[in-house]
Amino acid sequence: MTLDPGLERWRLVLGEAGGAVCGGGGLSGDGAGRDAALDWLYGRDEDLAKRGVRRGPGAGRGDGWGDDGGPGGREGGSGPSQLTTVDWLDAITRLFPRETIERLERDAVERYEILDVVTNPDVLSRIEPNATLLKAVLRTKHLMNADVLRLARRIVEKVVRELVEKLAREVRVAFSGPRSRTPSRFKLARNFDVRRTIRDNLEHYDPQRRRIAVQTPHFLSRTRRHLERWQVILIVDQSGSMVSSVIHSAVTAACLWGLPGVQTHLVAFDTEVVDLTSDVDDPVELLMKVQLGGGTDIARAVAYGAQLVEQPRRAILVVITDFYEGGSEAALRRTVKDLVGQGTTVLGLAALDEEANPSYDRELAQSLADLGAHIGAMTPGELAAFVAERVGR
């Protein structure tokens, strides 16, 4: 007897131990394949294996995969699984929806550190680029030879292009400027002047139909922000925990690059400081140069950024870090105090990504806020709006 679809899903969640709970029925052909794929990945979790929720690899051949690595019978045995990462990737691509595939890939890379997901050329040629894989590539690219790097670059290019396109729209909105009250001869729906149109057409109101017959529509002009020269200095922590912020900092810098009146800098740091401004217009190349990991010297990086400031009251210095300082906290506070005192806007971000979930040293962050720095977490779009607001004053 084969389990109905609802019970089969519970059986997949619970693992082999859930068979009895679900009535002892068997899995369908695709269900057995899904179970085997889940088992290959989550069987690595020793805590789950001890509870019998998921079998560990090599714990038996009852994993739904035949000796050739493909779906097969569920007879017992003691030999190790012959399933490869390529087989597993092909299976999940065929058996699961896209959202589940991305979750499985994320767990494979981040939870179980199955690095051949992003270092095996056979896998890279099959895999669909996504944000999780981009982060994995940046963490492991130092392990790749030239041929694998070329394949990995495909992931970087596709995901970065999508991020740039999305943020570029938000930046255009942030910097497009407010509508003025000056009439315009250009009839664009987004500039429709509702109040003046109603006022000037009230004589054409039809009380029976309760409608105004608009004979003369009016439109407003849209002013451009008057931008004096501003500097936006992005200083990003490139320690391993900040990989999402590194990606979005590169994308943000690329989208701000070339805006009228805005001079953008991008500086990466760990215990050393690297000025990446020359590559800001090519975020793919920039990310391929970033070296994640190492210690953290925020004070040194902020001191370098302070040296870049040309007109203090026309500068925004953005420090993107978890605020776990490996250098001198006292030196960092002195530099931030001096920057704020000279009129520079200092913004400390604990996260810069699409989710903006911060994890940071709150004590140090609060001490910088007490000195006049703005502290928080932002999405790239929110940072663009923050910059636009300051620049457009």
What does this structure look like?
- This is VWFA domain-containing protein.
- Residues 55-79 have a biased composition (Gly residues).
- It holds the Pfam family VWA_CoxE.
- The protein has 393 residues and is of the alpha/beta class.
- Among the domains are: 5-83, no CATH class; 230-391, Rossmann fold, CATH 3.40.50.410.
- It has helices spanning 5-14, 29-42, 46-50, 85-95, 98-111, 116-119, 121-126, 131-140, 146-175, 194-200, 243-256, 283-289, 298-308, 329-341, 362-370, 380-391; strands spanning 179-183, 205-206, 211-212, 220-222, 230-237, 262-269, 273-275, 315-320, 345-352, 374-378.
- Strand 5 (230-237), helix 11 and strand 6 form a beta-alpha-beta unit.
- Helix 8 (131-140) packs across helix 9 (146-175), helix 9 packs across helix 11 (243-256) and helix 13 (298-308) runs parallel beside helix 14 (329-341).
- The protein is globular and about 75 Å long.
- It starts with a helix and ends with a helix.
Topology (elements, then pairings):
Blueprint: H1 5-14, H2 29-42, H3 46-50, H4 85-95, H5 98-111, H6 116-119, H7 121-126, H8 131-140, H9 146-175, E1 179-183, H10 194-200, E2 205-206, E3 211-212, E4 220-222, E5 230-237, H11 243-256, E6 262-269, E7 273-275, H12 283-289, H13 298-308, E8 315-320, H14 329-341, E9 345-352, H15 362-370, E10 374-378, H16 380-391
Parallel strand pairs: 5-6, 5-8, 8-9, 9-10
Antiparallel strand pairs: 1-4, 2-3, 6-7
